[in-house]
Each structure stands twice: as C-alpha cells, then as structure tokens.
Fold:
Amino acid sequence: MSRTESPTVVIVPGLRDHVADHWQTLLAADLDRVAAVAPLEHDKLSLAARVAALESVLADVDGPVVLVAHSAGVLITVHWAQRHRRPIAGALLVTPPDLGVPLPAGYPTPEQLDANGWNRVPRTVLPFPSIVGVSTDDPMAEYGTVVELAESWGSRVLDLGAVGHLNPASGYGRWPLATRLVDELIADATVRG
Structure:
C-alpha cells in the first residue's frame, strides 16, 4: 500500500435490518471510500451465510480495508477471520453480544443461535489490529466476558462507559467517537503501508 492509498471502510452490521439512524449508517454516509454488507434476503440467521456475505463484499474491494462491525457483526468478523486470509488494515469491533446471556425480547433464542452456528465464538488472536468497544451497561453482554473475548482476540479494549448496546434504542444515532476511531485506524494503516 502506498502512503496515499486510503483504505476502504467495510461496514459489518449486526442481525437487525438496515436502520437509517444507526451510527454505522450515519458513519458510512460521511466516508468517501465505503462498502457495506447488505441485509440478507434468505438464511437471515445463518452465520455461514453472513460470513459469505462479508467475504463477497471484501472480494469486490481493491486495496486496503478497515472493518467497522457492531453487535453480531463483530462475531461475523471474527468467524470470517478464521476462514479467510485477505489482509485487513484494522478493525473497530463495537459492543459484541455475549451469547452466554439471554438476549432481550425480539432477538434470537439460544437454541436458534446454536442451530445457526453462532455459539462457538473463536478465541484466537485476530490477524489484524483491532479495537473492541465495550459498554459497561450493555443488556446484551456481560462486561467481563467481552473484555475476555477482546483480550483473546489480541484487541485493544476501549471502555465506552454506560452506552447500552450503542444503538438507536440506547439513544445513539450519530456517534462522533466512531469517526475518530476509524480515522485513527485509517491513519495507522496508511503509515504502516
């Protein structure tokens, strides 16, 4: 990568369909080089289908990539990294769910998640630099479990404080810290290049 080649940011959403006022959607609108994994039309709960969708987006991107994943998108990213070897310049992994706790109403049950391949979360070092944003009051994750996951992935842990699940339901739309963190990952990737 040349010093002037800026990475493409690839947005990896969670299990929810497109949400116009979600911080990832708003971040994507502010970026020049961006691609996003689109909502699935079929096999919506299949981890394998979601990993394949991420791989398909990445196959269409030339040059360096920074991943920006939220919620189940973090797990998709980690599973993708176990199966594929495309170089990634860095990743922002925000509020991954803790599949060891019951998820709130409206989310898949543990049985549904297990049937669709979600319940074995890899705990190996990721082959790229990453930052894991952890909420102290996320209804979908135990703080300590997420910190342990981040450490097993070799990620920098970023305590976000009491931000819930960092989604519109928690009162978050535009999230300025995401822009600063993505800019940091892009700058680091450009310098390393």
